[in-house]
Amino acid sequence: MRAFRSVVISGASRGLGAALARRFAASGARLLLVARDRDALEAVAADCAARGAAVEIAALDVAEAARLAAALARFEAAGPVDLVIANAGVLAGTASAGGAEDPDAAARQVAVNLLGAIHLVGPLLPGMLARGEGAVALVASLAAFRGLPDSPGYSASKAGMLAWGESLRAAHAPQGLRVTVLCPGFFDSAMGARHLGRRPSKMTLDDTAARCERAIRAGRAMAAFPPALAWPLRLLALLPSPLADRAIRLVRFRIRPEPP
């Protein structure tokens, strides 16, 4: 299991990102934590510093490519980044099961979840490839395997992350780049609590973070879990579309709007 000394994590102010930040915080490690909420970031940074890590924060939106690139350049000037975790994400979906998703909300999810990951990882790739080593972890979702009828923008963003991660791995693994695509199912989080409907095989946040950490440190190509939910979603692709669509409609839901 590999140790990482210089780590960048987006969406690190709460939930899975904060849990991963605490797990990668250790004596001698450097962390750059990225999120929009400065106060929450500072609280997580304090926890990580108490574990011995040297921590910097960047309170910004990953959709802001230029500001993010500048923050990454400042951090990397002090030493090469050997792990970047693209975790920042937003969830909109439909306000009522069977309703239509607002187009602006769908675009925002793609801008943050997918393009934000590209904005985060892209500036760090040249250095990793030049050094012949580096690790990228992309927090996608089981929604990447099958579009959810009540969350089209979110599903599209996560499917894009999966495809982008697979492309990076196929292109650059011979140059020493390790890419892990993480596809968790439902787990306890503020975002997950806005999902109003069945959440089969729901996991704890700690279990989810532990599975993600193990996959990253082991350099696995993909971690899709829990298996009881991951395999049925992947097998839906083998069914004729009308049958697969009928099956996925059994898990209709709605999304409570995000607090302002």
Please, could you describe this protein's structure?
The protein has 260 residues and is α/β, with parallel strands linked by helices. It has one domain: NAD(P)-binding Rossmann-like Domain (Rossmann fold), CATH 3.40.50.720. The chain is built from ten helices and nine strands. The strands form two sheets. It has a seven-stranded parallel β-sheet, with helices on both faces. Helix 1 crosses helix 8. It is globular. The termini are far apart. 40% of the residues are buried.
Keywords:
alpha/beta; 45% helix; Rossmann fold; 260 residues; two-stranded antiparallel ribbon; seven-stranded parallel beta sheet
Question: What would CATH call the architecture?
Answer: 3-Layer(aba) Sandwich
Query: What is the string of SSEs from the N terminus onward?
Result: EHEHEHEHHEHEHEHEHHE
Instruction: Write the CATH fold name.
Output: Rossmann fold
Structural class: alpha/beta
Strand line-up of the largest beta sheet: 3-2-1-4-5-6-8
Gross geometry? globular
Distance between the termini: 41 Å
User: How many helical stretches?
Assistant: 10
> How many extended strands?
9
Give helix % range: 40-55%
The whole-number mean of residue pLDDT values reads 92
Work out the oligomeric state of the chains in this entry: single chain
Strand % is 15-25%
- Under CATH at level 1, the class stands as Alpha Beta
Low-confidence parts: none
What is the gyration radius calculated from CA atoms? 18 Å
Report the CATH superfamily.
NAD(P)-binding Rossmann-like Domain
Strand count, sense and barrel status of the largest sheet are:
7 strands, parallel
